[in-house]
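Hey, resending since the last one bounced:
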Amino acid sequence: MKRFSISDIETLTGIKAHTLRIWEQRYNFFTSKRSETNIRYYDAEDLRLLLNIATLNQNGYKISKISKMQSAEIDEQVNRLVQDQFNFGVQVQILSNAVLRLDEYDFQGKLKLCIEEMGFKNAMQDVVFPFLRKVEFMRQVKTLTVCHEQFAIHHVCNKITTEIAKISFVKALNGNQYLLFLPYAEENEVSLLYLKYLIKEKGNEILYLGAHVSLKDLAIAISIYQPDYAISIFTKTRATEEINTIIHKILETKPNLTLLLIGTKLSDKAIVPHDNLKILDDITEFVSLFGAGEISLAS
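The C-alpha cells again:
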C-alpha cells in the first residue's frame, strides 16, 4: 500500500502541513494514520479525499461546511463543479482522481464531457496538457506509478486519434507536406499527435512516423516523402553534439526543408544555427505562431 507523508500531501494538494494538522484536530472529519514507529502517513484514499477537499475549499466552500459532509457528498459536490467547463482546475482534478483509481470508465467519461463542453482544442490546451503535467509531476515524486502515467497517456492518445479520424480531409490548394517524428528514446506521443490534428485540420498532408525513429530511418523517409516541413519534440536531456548531429543529418538529406524542433531542454544548448531551423519552447508557442500565420500551415 502506498504511503504519503504530510509533506507529500502538502505538495500535491496545496494544503499547508500546519493547516492539515489544525483541520484534523478541530474538525476530526479525517485523520492521518501512524506507522509502527509513530510517523504520520496517509494512504491513496486519504489523498483522493484531501484532493477533493482542497478543490472545494479553493472554490469557495468553507472547511467548516466541508467537514460536515460524508465522503460521497464531497465527491458529488466536486462533480457538480465539473459542470463549469471554464473551471480548469476542477477539470484537471477530476481527471487526476480517475487516474489515481485507474478507473477507465470514469476517465473516458470525464474526458469526453470536457471535450464536448469546451471543444477539442480548448480542452487540450486548457485542461489536458496541464493535467498531463500534473500526472508527470505526481509520478516524479512517486505519488503515482509509471502505470498510472501510461494509463493517462494511452487514453489521451486514443482520444486524439479519434478526433483526427473525424476530420474530413480536403487538401488545401497551397497545402504542404509535413513529416512528424520523435527521435530515439522519446516516447510520449501526446503532443506529436496533437500537432498532427492541427496540421491535418488545415488541409496539409502528413507522414506520421511516431516515436523511437532512428536517424538512418528518418533520412530514408525524408528522401522518399520529400516533406516541406519536419517537426519533432525533445523532452529528454540530450548531449548538444547528438542534437546537432540530428539537425545536420535532416538538413543534409533535404537542404530546403524547414525543420521545427520543440522543447524547453533545447534552449540551453549550443545548437549550430541554420536558416531553415526554428526552435520553439513548447506546443503553446507553436500554436501561437500557427495562429499568427508565422508557420505556413495553409488553410
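Residues 240 and 270 are 6 Å apart (CA to CA).

Sorry for the duplicate.
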